[in-house]
Design brief:
The protein has helices spanning 2-32, 39-57, 59-85, 90-112, 139-161, 163-173, 175-180, 185-211, 217-232, 237-255, 261-267, 277-282, 286-289, 293-304; strands at 128-132, 135-138. Helix content is 73%, strand content 3%. By secondary structure, the protein is mainly alpha-helical. The chain starts with a helix and ends in an 11-residue tail after the last helix. It has a two-stranded antiparallel sheet.
């Protein structure tokens, strides 16, 4: 039971980190229909900007300044880049953001180098908050968990309870009507794209000092973000939260399991030849397959329920 609770708590922490990163893409991909392949690049820029700003004014000002800078950059990209290629369809948007991903990665390497930078947890939060089953939990991880919960509550309230949220959702499905009512639809899209990128930057600020700030960080977490929003459902903030927690807990439990298919087969009284090709596959443990599990879940979801857990339209 102790191991179960320990693993569950770690899975929730990892899942909320995924939600912080995927919430911005949920807004962009689900509400604007834009395939932003460079979303994880803004996450990386958030970490690097926070590192640079914290060198001069400390972590807490960087926690505010860095996401605002990323949000401004995102709005600029939408205004002068995506808006020009939007009329050519989703393929053009995908190619644009795909190229932007590599441009940002090269710029980061030219400015900060190819090795990880010294972005660390602030000393004021570098202590153990409590102990659980003999394992100490840093205060910083609980702080990140708290921020993630506030992000979900704030976004959910804005999108469902405010006039701005209604305008954002209506601008996607009925842009002509929203425009006729006097709202600037392109400006709404620009603000949504900037907000989504800013949320990715905030995730980078909070995660860069624990997961490491390096040029490969965007490539490491970028693909799994698309898994989250597809499994959760396009445009569904609740779906992004549930899918993030599901994937976080699933991967965390899988990493801790050292069982293989061969173990089950042996219990049933069967065995494979040591030189058999199948022996290679049945000897794979669940922990070795952990990185693949989210993508297997994605495939199953696309086959069984293309609209995701809480989505209202198919992918």
């Amino acid at each position: 039971m102790d191991v179960f609770l320990f693993t569950l708590f770690n899975g929730i922490l990892y899942g909320m980190l995924l939600f912080m990163l995927s919430s911005g893409l949920t807004l962009i991909f689900g509400m604007m229909g834009v395939l932003n392949f460079a979303h994880a690049s803004f996450y990386m820029l958030g970490a690097y900007f926070a590192y640079q700003i914290s060198e001069y004014v400390g972590f807490y000002p960087a926690l505010i300044i860095a996401p605002l800078i990323i949000a401004f950059l995102g709005a600029y990209v939408e205004r002068y880049g995506l808006r020009r290629v939007h009329k050519f369809g989703h393929v053009a948007e995908l190619l644009f953001t795909f190229g932007l991903f590599y441009i940002i990665e090269e710029i980061v390497q030219m400015v900060w180098g190819k090795v990880p930078v010294g972005y660390h947890i602030p000393p004021s939060m570098d202590f153990s908050l409590f102990n659980l089953m003999g394992t100490s939990y840093p205060a910083y991880q609980i702080f990140v968990l708290t921020v993630s919960v506030f992000i979900f509550a704030g976004l959910f309230a804005v999108l469902t309870k405010t006039r701005a949220g209604l305008i954002i959702k209506a601008a996607l499905t009925h842009p002509e009507t929203v425009s006729a009512l006097g709202h600037n639809v392109p400006k709404v899209f620009m603000m949504v794209f900037g907000l989504g990128c800013g949320l990715a930057g905030l995730a980078g600020v909070l995660a860069g000092n624990t997961l490491g700030t390096e040029p490969a960080m965007a490539f490491m977490l970028g693909p799994i973000v698309f898994v989250v929003i597809v499994v959760g459902g396009l445009g569904s903030l609740k779906g992004a939260l549930v899918a993030s927690l599901l994937i976080g807990v699933m991967q965390t439990f899988a990493v801790s399991m050292d069982y293989s298919l061969n173990s089950l087969i042996s219990l049933l009284g069967f065995s494979f030849d040591a030189e058999s090709l199948w022996r290679i596959f049945v000897d794979l443990t669940i922990s070795q397959l952990a990185p693949v599990l989210p993508y297997l879940l994605l495939v199953v979801m696309l086959i069984a329920r293309p609209r995701g857990l809480f989505g209202t339209r198919d992918v």
